[in-house]
Structure formats: structure tokens, C-alpha cells
Specification:
alpha+beta, Beta-lactamase, 2 domains, 5-stranded antiparallel sheet, 16 strands, 24% strand, globular
Length: 450
């Protein structure tokens, strides 16, 4: 018995010694980094199964997580809605021949799927149509997050979110250089009219700037800078409701549906008959798109949808945050986190690395957790497509990037066959993002060796 006890103590001492060596390596990487001189770095690594702390540095400092937050908002939505949940956009008819389009806040709704729905209406409903009535009551119509930057209003990665949503609330535009003494041309390829102010000149590079000036004229988008060749890009719309109605009008015409009344906004009344519907892909596919490619629009729409399911009423971000807080209420951490949106772009969002790894460990212990974890990107996918390729089968993670902010969190299968959760938050840096990501990767590779 004494021999066995001595052997176990010996093994424990060797393990502590090995872990101490790796902790020293991580300490060395951080302390030698230029980032550590002027920025804040926070790191937490824990055993995903036991919760044992493996390594921590500034783990209790509140930091902006950027898009790493999507892991936690999407997990709370995934658990609330179920992985096989699908959005249903439906059309109903009343006895007065009015058609009601019940919106579902489906982030993946496109002109194509809307036309397919309306074709089904055309095939199934043979009566003359009076009014087309849109019901947007599934979620509220707050279109911009608390703490979001006003000058992100033209960022195609941050379109306004709304129950009136189609084509991710973005339009396609084509910009061509000037020819034969004419000005460069901007072509709007959507039925949605947006006032585009052309201040572009020909140049040796494509360097275009997109701006809105809400204090002056919020419905104008100014495009300036230089253009060399043809540029195809997207712009978020300034009015999701008007955009949706424009797309609907065109789709009704393409589908051959004629109506004698007008397009109105109202809730679907009782006593109507469903005549057609169309469903989205299952939730796990949509959340996979959200996590792998860091889709801000999808995350906000899904988060509010989960809130509607949670409260059995109109979905709001505030109710979604309440749902998330309840979901993670048993996470043991010394600090209270602050969450105000679904995608993490708000500067008001604050997490600690310690809370993040504790929440990751909770996710790991959920039933069928592997299904959710596999929705996160592995190297070669999405935002990890060109990172950590040497350990591509060992990592599932979510990245985050904003001005002066970089983060990454997830799970890693180490060389010693252990499963660790990790979170790395870096804030207030002024270095190129690629260099900061390279530093993060060096830490993760060191964690892999543990």
C-alpha cells in the first residue's frame, strides 16, 4: 500500500512539474511580447472535464470579447430552441381575400426563397387578392445594438437587423471606373432605392470609402476614394422595412400574384387559413454559419428568436440576455459579466477569461455537447481558414476581432490526450491584426503541448 501511495505521489509530482514547465513557457511568451507592454492580455486554460485550472493570467480582468461572445449567445439559443428548430415563414388568407405574410425573423430568407413561397401561394390560392398584409410581430424592430459604433453603419458585416429581413438586409452594387471623360459609375442591382452620392475618382488602386452622416442626411450614402477596376460589393440598407417591401413587390410580380388593394402592416388575426409556408434549414446549420463565419446578422436574429421562444412573446435583446444569464447562472466565476447584444460587437460587452472557460466547461458537459462544439470552426474553416493548420484536427474555436481588440476561445485536444477549454482576450492594441493573431496562435500551440 505504501509503495502504491508513493508511486501516486511521484506521478503527481511529475505532472505538477510538467505543467509548471508549460506555464512558465506561456508566461515567457506573454512577458516577452510587445503586446504585453502597452495592451492588456488575459488568458485562462482549464481542464474541460474536471474544471481544474491549468493556467491563468489576468483571468479576472473584464475584457471586451468581440465575436467570441457568439459561443455563449448561440449556445443559449441552441438549448432554448433545439437543434432541429427551423424558421417558418407562412402566408394566410382571411375570408375577405386578404393575404397575410407572417414573418419569422428568418436570417436566411432571400429573394429566391420568398419567390418560392409566393409561387406556392399562386398555385394554392385561386381567389382574387385584396390586400397584402405583413405581420412583423415575432421580434421587435430595434435595428441597432447598444454600444455599436455609428460609423459602422455602412459596414456590410453589420447590417441592421429587423423582422423585415431579406438578403441579410444588404444590396449588391457595382462600381466601374470612369470612361470617355465620364464619372465613375455606381450601379444599384436591387429594386431598393438608396441615395448614393458619387465622389469617386479614377486611381491606381481600389480604395473606396463608404460613409453615412446621420447628423446631416441619414438616407444618403457617400462613396469616395479611388477606383482602378470594376468593384462588386454590398451595402447594408438604411431602411429594412422599405427594403423588404420593395423586394416583396418585385417578388409578387415575378410570381404572378395580383392584388387590388395595398401592402399593409398588421398582425395576423384569428380565424385565418394557412395556404403556404416555407422553412429554413435547421438551426444547427444556421448556427454553424454564425460561428464559423462570424455572421453578426444571423447571431442577432437567432438570439432574439430564442427570446421569443423563452418569453412566449415578442422577442427582444433584453429578454435574450435574461435567457442567457439564466442559462449560465450556475457558472462559477468571481466576476459578473455584462452582455448587451448577440454578436459581441458592442463595446459594452464585458467578460473575463475565467468566466469564459467556466462557461465553455458548462457547454462541454451538456447533453450532446459534441454536436454544438462541432458547429465552431476548426482550422481550415471560416475565420480559422489560415490559422493553426499544424493542429487542425485538435481545435474548435471562435475568433473575435474589432478595432484594438482580438480574442479567441474554444477547445483543444492536447498532445497528452487532455481536453482543455481556453480563452485569450487582448485589448487596446495598436498592432496589425495579423501579428496579434500570430501571437494568439503561439499561445495555443504551447497549450497543445501540455
Amino acid at each position: 500500500m505504501n509503495k502504491i501511495k508513493a508511486m501516486l505521489i511521484s506521478i503527481a509530482m511529475i505532472t505538477i512539474s510538467v505543467n509548471s514547465g508549460f506555464c512558465a513557457s506561456l508566461d515567457s511568451l506573454i512577458h516577452k511580447s510587445e503586446l504585453n507592454k502597452t495592451s492588456t492580455i488575459a488568458v485562462s486554460v482549464k481542464d474541460a472535464k474536471s474544471g481544474r485550472v491549468v493556467y491563468q493570467y489576468n483571468q479576472n480582468k473584464l475584457m471586451n470579447p468581440a465575436s467570441v461572445l457568439k459561443i455563449f449567445t448561440m449556445n443559449s439559443a441552441y438549448v432554448q430552441l433545439g437543434n432541429d428548430f427551423a424558421y417558418e415563414t407562412a402566408v394566410y388568407a382571411d375570408k375577405n381575400n386578404n393575404l397575410y405574410l407572417k414573418l419569422s425573423a428568418d436570417p436566411s430568407l432571400t429573394t429566391g426563397t420568398l419567390c418560392a413561397l409566393l409561387k406556392n401561394v399562386k398555385d394554392n390560392y385561386k381567389k382574387p387578392v385584396k390586400d397584402i398584409v405583413i405581420d412583423p410581430t415575432v421580434i421587435d424592430n430595434k435595428q441597432w445594438g447598444i454600444g455599436w459604433m455609428w460609423d459602422d453603419d455602412t459596414n456590410k458585416l453589420l447590417p441592421k437587423y429587423s423582422p423585415f429581413s431579406v438578403n441579410e438586409n444588404k444590396i449588391d452594387i457595382t462600381i466601374e471606373p470612369a470612361k470617355n471623360g465620364r464619372m465613375p459609375q455606381i450601379r444599384n442591382n436591387s429594386p431598393y432605392h438608396m441615395m448614393l452620392v458619387n465622389k469617386i475618382t479614377n486611381g491606381n488602386t481600389d480604395n473606396l470609402i463608404y460613409e453615412r452622416m446621420p447628423w446631416n442626411s441619414g438616407d444618403m450614402t457617400f462613396i469616395s476614394g479611388n477606383i482602378k477596376g470594376i468593384v462588386k460589393t454590398q451595402l447594408p440598407v438604411d431602411s429594412p422595412e422599405r427594403h423588404f417591401v420593395n423586394i416583396l413587390e418585385k417578388s409578387l410580380s415575378r410570381s404572378g400574384i395580383k392584388y387590388t388593394g395595398s401592402i399593409k402592416i398588421a398582425a395576423v388575426p384569428s380565424g385565418v387559413n394557412k395556404i403556404a409556408h416555407i422553412s429554413s434549414q435547421p438551426l444547427d446549420i444556421l448556427i454553424g454559419e454564425t460561428l464559423k463565419n462570424s455572421n453578426n446578422f444571423y447571431s442577432e436574429m437567432i438570439f432574439k428568436t430564442a427570446a421569443a421562444n423563452y418569453t412566449k412573446s415578442q422577442g427582444t435583446t433584453e429578454d435574450a440576455v435574461e435567457m442567457l444569464n439564466k442559462h449560465f447562472s450556475d457558472v462559477k466565476s468571481s466576476d459578473k459579466v455584462i452582455i448587451v447584444d448577440g454578436c459581441g460587437i458592442s463595446r459594452n460587452d464585458l467578460l473575463t477569461a475565467d468566466w469564459a472557460t467556466a462557461a465553455l466547461n458548462k457547454i462541454y458537459k451538456q447533453k450532446d455537447s459534441e454536436n454544438f462544439i462541432n458547429l465552431m470552426a476548426k482550422p481550415v474553416e471560416g475565420t480559422l481558414s489560415d490559422r493553426l493548420l499544424n493542429i487542425s484536427l485538435k481545435v474548435r474555436a471562435k475568433t473575435g476581432t474589432a478595432s484594438g481588440i482580438s480574442s479567441i476561445a474554444g477547445y483543444i485536444d492536447t498532445k497528452s490526450k487532455k481536453k482543455y477549454s481556453f480563452a485569450i482576450f487582448i485589448q487596446n492594441h495598436n498592432m496589425p491584426a495579423v501579428e496579434v493573431k500570430r501571437f494568439e496562435d503561439s499561445l495555443i500551440n504551447e497549450i497543445y503541448k501540455m
